[in-house]
Design goal:
globular, two-stranded antiparallel ribbon, eleven-stranded mixed beta sheet
Length: 478
């Protein structure tokens, strides 16, 4: 039998309907890849083989007895970044602080996946509490790039990208606060979507920076991304930031043509710092759209250069506030040494539980929120963030979508930037603006470097323009 783990989601769905194979056989194909590759790639930090097999067997029995009406995701093995709460399944955020945390409930998106009879293979590696661009800040060790295991997978959702790229799962859910889906998707050669802020519920997802966090998906095609988005998007009473806009069948956008679309090329995304090879590959993809009838227009987003500064003031402030709950009493590990008082208890628990990158960001965040500095830093950053949003609003009166690089460079070697946090932060320079504005952005593979490393292009659309992102991505894959 062919390697079922390499099929598209549509092909799995059609095969299950025809009873050409079973969900259990599809799962076994993925588990075979996990057992042969995960030791080297370190994509999964928890594998729920028993639970996945039970779910697959149960679905197979229903199909055999014609008791189940299959959704397109039914019986399809998938993975979850280790930041999503799954009832009874350890959720660590790749941090010692949560090394033994077992959630008593499912995140809303997990509930929706269960409603669709998806098969959860396990949890994937990530940067601690989603802080990082390389999945090196993890208590489980770094995830490694499937194209070159000496290189990073990107971050913070690196394990999710690797699990999809290496056929260990068909799709994966991750989070994107400043580029944490799109950047690893680009570095690992898969598709990764950060939707509009509020399009997908964040209930049951451990918070990093609440006004920046987005839940999104990785897959191996634009069509597969559309299937997943249709299943998990929508209003949720447990997340007041979610939109009540109707959720369309996103797969239908794949039938649309790019002919007549105006595609903007923002000059700031091709400036100094972006490697020439990356610039050339993305511009070649623009020519491909032009050949299909799209109009390519040069545009400018002048406030892009302030996005990193805004992010690294606003995000640590929100992170610092969110991580206050991890005190070793309500959540988190208990300190190994006896504390003198409650303050000393907090000090010891957090010193032992948090890694160096988390401590760095907490210190920055606490500082900018402290008395005398709030107006000078946080409040001013919020004002500039509004200007970034206005940049996008203005440019979308001239063009339908934007095309740009995802990362300034392909995957770098493990350890190369670990001691240079400022250089690491620059890895998200081209992805942060879309988070600041809350607009949808999709990374799709468009080429490779001379050394064989994937290079992705980023498609950015107006709010709730996920369908347009899929239309353009599908045209680039033609």
């Amino acid at each position: 039998m062919e390697n079922l783990s390499k099929l598209s989601i549509r092909a799995v769905h059609e095969g299950l309907l025809k009873k050409d194979f079973t969900s259990s056989e599809v799962l076994e194909s993925c588990l075979k890849e996990v057992k042969s590759q995960n030791k080297d790639l370190n994509a999964f930090v928890l594998i729920d083989e028993e639970g996945a097999k039970m779910a697959a067997n149960s679905l197979d029995a229903k199909i055999m007895n014609n008791e189940s009406s299959l959704s397109v995701l039914s019986g399809v093995p998938m993975s979850l970044k280790d930041i999503f709460c799954v009832k009874g399944m350890r959720t660590t955020c790749a941090s010692k602080m949560l090394e033994n945390f077992i959630p008593p409930y499912d995140a809303t998106v997990v509930e929706k996946l269960r409603d669709n009879d998806s098969i959860i293979v396990g949890k994937t590696n990530m940067d601690e509490f989603a802080c990082g661009a390389s999945t090196e800040h993890s208590i489980f060790g770094p995830a490694r790039n499937p194209y070159d295991t000496q290189r990073v997978a990107g971050g913070s959702s690196g394990g999710s990208a690797v699990s999809v790229a290496s056929n260990m799962s068909f799709y994966s859910l991750g989070t994107d606060t400043g580029g944490s889906i799109r950047q690893p998707a680009s570095l690992c050669g898969v598709y990764g979507l950060k939707p509009t802020y509020g399009r997908i519920s964040r209930s049951g997802v451990v918070s990093m920076a609440s006004s920046w966090d987005h839940v999104g998906a990785f897959a191996r095609s634009a069509e597969d991304i559309g299937f997943v988005l249709s299943a998990i998007a929508g209003k949720d009473r447990r997340d007041s930031t979610t939109s009540d806009k109707d959720v369309p069948d996103y797969s239908k956008f794949l039938d649309d043509s790019v002919k007549g679309l105006k595609i903007g090329i923002p000059k700031e995304y091709f400036d100094e710092g972006v490697e020439e090879e990356t610039r050339a590959v993305v511009m070649e993809s623009a020519k491909k759209l032009e050949k299909q009838g799209a109009e390519i227009i040069d545009v400018s987003l002048p406030y892009t250069k302030y996005a990193i500064a805004v992010y690294y003031i606003s995000m640590p402030a929100e992170l610092s506030s969110n991580l206050e709950r991890f005190d070793g009493i309500r959540y988190g590990i208990k300190p190994s040494e006896k504390a003198e008082d409650i303050v000393d208890y907090y000090y010891k628990a957090r010193s032992e539980g948090f890694g160096s990158e988390i401590k760095r960001r907490i210190l920055i965040g606490t500082y900018v929120l402290s008395s005398g500095y709030f107006d000078a830093y946080y409040k001013k950053a919020q004002k500039v963030r509004t200007l970034i949003l206005e940049d996008f609003n203005n440019v979308f009166t001239k063009v339908d979508a934007l095309l740009a690089p995802v990362s300034p460079f392909p995957a770098f070697k493990v350890g190369d930037l670990l001691d240079n946090p400022l250089a690491m932060y620059m890895a998200d320079a081209l992805t942060i603006p879309a988070n600041a504005a809350g607009v949808p952005a999709l990374s799709c593979p468009v080429g490779k470097s001379k050394t064989g490393l994937p290079i992705g292009a980023q498609i950015i659309a107006p709010q709730f323009g996920e369908g347009l992102c899929l239309t353009v991505a599908n045209a680039l894959s033609a």
